[in-house]
Amino acid sequence: MTHVALEQAIAKVPRSIQSELRTILAQHAVIDSSVVASWIDRLGTNISTLMIQLLPVAATYARVPISQFYVGAIALGKPQSKNQLGSGTLYFGADMEFVGQALSFSVHAEQSATINAWLHGETGLQALAIHEAPCGYCRQFLYEMATVNQNFVLLVKSNESQPEQTYTSNKLPHFLPEPFGPADLGLTGGLMQTVFHDLETYSTDDVVLAALSAANQSYAPYTKNFAGVALKDSHGNIFTGRYAENAAFNSSMSPMESALTFMNMNRYSQSLFDICDAVLVEVETGISQRPVTEAFLSSIAPKVKLRYAPATPSSNKL
Question: Which of 13, 67, 290, 317 is the 20 to 30 A CA-CA neighbour of 79?
Fold first, then answer.
């Protein structure tokens, strides 16, 4: 889709919030909890309906050159306090596909919105709004979240013949009976929980340090392959991504996918990927994020050579 498509989608949301929404999206696809609360009050609506109304806007961020199937998602972060259940910051997400790469490298909107929230500091989600029931891959990905059993719900828009605000609300186990997750492998907690691995790498380079920060907050409880990617654009902006491991292994998300979807959702819809520098920092274990990161980079920015920096435990831990 194009900027025209974004404007068309914005035109479909309630008129009283269109101008604010346009201004916010010019910076990033995140709506702060205070703005969300003011919109709900102004519109006389509820958080779930607002999330459903924003789905077409999120879908304009989709980059789907192969399927041409535009999907968006809206994630609701945790409330500011126990007395504010149902309120929180909204994070947009959208599908991504990559020409020249295997379809298994695709990013789904549910993953995108979750990563957008996680990289903005959220430690869990209350709800996720989507156009259709999630695929099995996304159900498994979402089940890794630390807060998945704490009243997390999926809001699924009803069919197109019904009003825009019509949706169903169900907890994830409704879509994933007899699930397999972190607890089955003896793990407490899960994806999005606050962690710091106290890694270091010998560099003062700003892009390397950004990738190191991402690696320090990555989630890799099964392999300990803590990894982060940092991408720098021609304007000097740096976008990071963290490795997000999954108990099912093949539902894991590479730090490069994480960085690309974060970059996509935090620039104006359909802005070009003008990457001029890319760094991967990881702890070297039995697996590596290097091959997949280089493969992505060859498709997105073939003139950019990946810089690789192994990380080690901080000397303070030795």
Answer: 13
Q: What is the pLDDT of residues 263-275, one digit of tens each?
A: 999 987 667 789 9
* R_g (Cα) of the chain, nearest Å: 19
Give mean pLDDT, residues 222-232. Answer: 97
How many CA within 13 A on the CB side of residue 33?
Answer: 16
pTM, rounded to two decimals: 0.94
Domains within the chain, CATH numbers bracketed: 12-181 (3.40.140.10), 199-313 (3.40.140.10)
Query: Annotated binding site, which residues?
Result: 108, 135, 138
Catalytic residues: 110
Query: How high is the pLDDT of residue 92?
Result: 98
Q: What pLDDT score was predicted for residue 151?
A: 81
- Contact at 8 Å (CB) between 226 and 215? yes
| Residue set of the binding site for Zn(2+) | 108, 135, 138
Asked whether the predicted pLDDT for residue 317 surpasses 60, the reply is: no
